[in-house]
Amino acid sequence: MSVDPRIAAVTARIVERSRPTRETYLGRLREMASKGPHRTTLSCGNLAHGFAACGAGDKANLAGDRVPNLGIITSYNDMLSAHQPFETYPETIRRAAREAGGVAQVAGSVPAMCDGVTQGQPGMELSLFSRDVIAMAAAVGLSHNMFDAAVYLGVCDKIVPGLVIAALSFGHLPAIFIPAGPMTSGLPNDEKVRIRQLYAEGKVGRAELLEAESKSYHGPGTCTFYGTANSNQMLMEIMGLHTPGSSFVNPGTPLREALTAEAAKRALAITALGNAFTPVGEMIDERSVVNGVVGLHATGGSTNHTLHLVAMARAAGIQLTWEDISDLSDAVPLLARVYPNGPADVNHFNAAGGINFLIDQLLSVGLLHEDVRTVWGKGLSAYAVEARLGDNGAVVREPVSKASGDAKVATTADAPFQPNGGLKMLTGNLGKAVIKISAVKPERHVIEAPARVFNDQEELQAAFKAGALEGDFVAVVRFQGPKANGMPELHRLTPPLGVLQDRGQTVALVTDGRMSGASGKVPAAIHVTPEACDGGPIARIREGDMIRVDAVNGSLEVLVDAAEFAARTPATADLGANQWGLGRDLFARFREAAGTADQGASVLY
Fold it and tell me: Which of 12, 187, 416, 473 could staple 452 via S-S, CB 3.0–4.6 A?
């Protein structure tokens, strides 16, 4: 199947736009790769330090230059459910490496914070910036120049994007990402949401809320809704950075163990010391990035990736824009209904065929580039498989079924849930923004209502509790951008706005902050740029101004006379309380240097 002309056109313009930066990137990568196994450049003292703690066998192997050494970058900690399973991975990887005739060493660790813990708390203001910290921390680990390839152990929100940026910064090395998988299913997501809204209305207490949350988030593995963490895993699979069929296998299972060992062996097989050299910076190209965006739309994935994919692409010299993402949304149908886009969780999605079924469906209608390089080395059709455990304990793969295991959760390309994807760009006299429409009912795709203006989310929460949010309105929550306070997620606004919407009010949100990867049923124009802290138009909105959020035509407007609006003095806010406490004082330079949301909100590019 040839590539759909709409997909091909967007890809071509990304290639043309990226040509200067991509050529510079590839030139530097090839210069590094041409130097051969990098341990040969180390002095005897350098090398002795690098293998001093190894066992005798590994030390002897590393003393030469013909045995590949695999660097492990891990985000393990044992308070983050998704990353707790990584505790045992290094030993599994080391054992697999020895079986394959190589060596593996933990090169370094990176921080991994949980947005679920910090949601609505001061620590959330470090969340987005942690992506760039993770990239830098991984670079420190790999800077020892001891490695022929690297594996990256990461799952959640900012961790995987940060690790991808690091991997592409060391693009002369092969890279494979190894997931931990989702926790088993707990309390159904729609029941969790019901309890949250009852709590917001004061109809149940904290004990009932905690019980529901604990039944939802109850064991090792990623949260089971389709937020940023599980969107990350989809992206790693569809971009060819996972081994086929590995994304959504539960932790602590024999198949998960076998997939981990297999990934380590595969990483060693694609080093420059063998015949299948696959440096990740060559492997990931404009087609791979487009495939990632297509997957995001087809699954109704996380809004956070309108930031992360832009930053990840830039690490490889690829210039992806929100316009590209929005235009691809118009070409890609929604093929998955996973919470918040439906009641199912990722375990149900995987049982219905999962991302591998969707890859097969998207390939069948030309919505993906098949002819990409992957860590598996066989083009993207090699990912239209289901991974199973063979009789000998090794991984075996079978072609996915052409029929969905549950058509209410994962559907075929000829019977989509909706004709377009999950994310769109909005433009207008308020700047640029992003909206996720996959979970929003069609009758709410266009909202026109007076503004209620708040300078932080606590002001809106207080107004809700006081019963002051009556009638139809668009909540404008500003001074939440990267330069203001690190661009925290504002997911705590979802329950009160959801309550008001369920009462029959027409409500929407406009903010220069982020929503959760689980952005749901309330229309939300987010990531507004320029942000209020930079004097963006959102800072000139006044209480009662009519706001129009139009996800059909892709516009975001304040319906005020243009001359009057331009003459207004932008509002200011006292951000002093955001500058210190829980580490925020250490990130002052990040806030100063942060780029705009449409450029990835990065301090690196």
Answer: 473
